[in-house]
């Protein structure tokens, strides 16, 4: 009887949460490229063909923020965005099929920073300093649908990012196509908790010159590493936690998903990459300082490393890993000049910096056994960094072939 009561109570709380979640987005607004702003934006002197979509979408997101929640449905059409749109808690944005949010430079900047499409921070807090730390920022945000965010290859001094997440929780990004990355990332994710990125496509880039720009970058707001520059962040070195990538496609990129900086003994926790495809990426996944990492049931094809980072996958500072049931085809070079994986195990990795001690990884016998569940065809080797460095031929020793 006691067990039944516990189960019943859990079910009530679960379904109540769903109802509360739905009700938070209940008030709905639909817009098209011809929709006018719902405030007085048209009175601005620079309201014109280059800024009208920005002002219109901004007006509705501000309205939802003031109403403490709601849904914005963006219909088919192209929306030119020279400036940043701020998204507050309990906001759901649905990009309908054929809706394209296109990053532009004409008409900006106005009063907002112009380098991003979305920042998950309320408009009222966007220009304040050190507003949020930990995971206490905006929450319950949804960006879903079948639409596209096009960064237009904008780069250099006009660096563009599709989404900046910082100190956020309970975030869903589902079904969106991100394309034409120029210099930075499609998604910058820092100090976030409970984030699901699913069924999304990330495709296309122009070279950054650094050879390591991730489509999705997981970083820490660390003032000593300068990895996250948002004014409203407290820079308190909070890592990401409970992050899932499911069913996504990473296509023709410098790096698919991961990290290229780290902060001392701070670890991204409980990150899962599952059911994703990585095609023609120079580096598919780059991991530095993660605990409870799962990379399973993914497909990697034609991942050809660049000369600066000669590996298709990189692991350093990893503790507790499930690496299983992945398939690799034509990744790295069979002659070992380009590795399928570089794994810093017993030897410390420092990411070319001296601020923090070099990181090392550990691997249990059970975790090592899971490597045997993967399959590789025509791939490079694993380069294990440790005392007496040695190569391991995946196709003979660590993976099943054929």
Question: In words, what does this structure look like?
Answer:
The longest helix is centred in the first third of the chain and has 23 residues, at 2-24. The protein is built from four helices and 29 strands. The chain is 12% helix and 37% strand. It has a 19-stranded mixed β-sheet that branches. It has a ten-stranded parallel β-sheet with strand order 3-6-9-12-15-18-21-23-25-27. By secondary structure, it is mainly beta.
Write the layout of secondary structure elements.
Layout: H1 2-24, E1 28-31, H2 52-66, E2 70-74, E3 77-81, E4 85-86, E5 91-95, E6 99-103, E7 116-119, E8 139-145, E9 148-150, E10 161-166, E11 169-174, E12 177-181, E13 187-190, E14 193-198, E15 201-205, E16 214-219, E17 241-246, E18 249-251, E19 255-258, E20 268-274, E21 277-279, E22 283-296, E23 299-301, E24 313-324, E25 327-329, E26 341-344, H3 365-370, E27 375-377, E28 382-385, E29 390-392, H4 394-398
Parallel strand pairs: 1-2, 2-5, 3-6, 4-7, 5-8, 6-9, 7-10, 8-11, 9-12, 10-13, 11-14, 12-15, 13-16, 14-17, 15-18, 16-19, 17-20, 18-21, 19-22, 20-22, 21-23, 22-24, 23-25, 24-26, 25-27, 26-28
Antiparallel strand pairs: 28-29
User: Total number of β-strand segments?
Assistant: 29
Shape: globular
The total count of helices amounts to: 4
Beta fraction of the residues?
35-45%
Q: How confident overall, as mean pLDDT? A: 88
Q: Determine the structural class based on helices, strands and strand pairing.
A: mainly beta
Unreliably modeled segments:
1-20, 394-402
Distance between the termini: 53 Å
Helix content: 10-25%
Evaluate the radius of gyration: 22 Å
Please describe the biggest sheet, giving its number of strands, its sense, and whether it closes into a barrel.
19 strands, mixed
């Amino acid at each position: 009887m006691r067990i039944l009561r516990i189960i019943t109570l859990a079910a009530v709380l679960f379904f109540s949460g769903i109802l509360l979640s739905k009700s938070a987005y209940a008030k709905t607004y639909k817009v098209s490229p011809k929709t006018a702003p719902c405030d007085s934006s048209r009175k601005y002197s620079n309201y014109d063909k280059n800024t009208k979509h920005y002002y219109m979408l901004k007006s509705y997101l501000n309205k939802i923020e003031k109403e403490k929640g709601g849904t914005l449905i963006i219909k088919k059409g192209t929306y030119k965005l020279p400036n940043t749109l701020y998204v507050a808690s309990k906001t759901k944005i649905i990009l309908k099929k054929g809706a394209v949010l296109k990053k532009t430079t004409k008409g900006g900047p106005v009063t907002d920073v112009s380098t991003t499409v979305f920042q998950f921070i309320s408009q009222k807090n966007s220009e304040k300093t050190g507003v949020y730390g930990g995971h206490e920022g905006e929450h319950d945000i949804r960006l879903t649908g079948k639409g596209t965010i096009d960064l237009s290859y904008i780069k250099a001094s006009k660096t563009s990012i599709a989404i900046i997440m910082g100190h956020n929780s309970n975030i869903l990004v589902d079904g969106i196509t991100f394309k034409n990355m120029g210099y930075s990332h499609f998604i910058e994710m820092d100090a976030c908790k409970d984030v699901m990125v699913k069924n999304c496509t990330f495709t296309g880039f122009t070279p950054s010159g650094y050879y390591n720009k991730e489509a999705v970058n997981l970083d820490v707001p660390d003032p000593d590493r300068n990895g996250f520059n948002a004014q409203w962040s407290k820079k308190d070195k909070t890592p990401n936690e409970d992050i899932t990538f499911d069913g996504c496609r990473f296509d023709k990129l410098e790096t698919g998903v991961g990290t290229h900086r780290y902060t001392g003994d701070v670890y991204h926790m409980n990150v899962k990459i599952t059911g994703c495809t990585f095609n023609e990426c120079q580096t598919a996944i780059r991991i530095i300082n993660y605990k409870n990492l799962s990379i399973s049931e993914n497909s990697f094809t034609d991942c050809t490393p660049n000369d600066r980072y000669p590996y298709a996958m990189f692991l350093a500072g990893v503790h507790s890993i499930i690496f299983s049931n992945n398939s690799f085809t034509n990744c790295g070079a069979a002659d070992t000049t380009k590795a399928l994986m570089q794994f810093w195990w017993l030897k410390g990795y420092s990411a070319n910096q001296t601020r923090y001690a070099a990181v090392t990884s550990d691997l249990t016998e059970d975790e090592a056994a899971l490597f045997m569940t993967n399959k590789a065809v025509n791939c490079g080797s694993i380069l294990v960094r440790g005392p007496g460095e040695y190569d391991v031929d995946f196709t003979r020793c660590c993976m099943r072939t054929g």
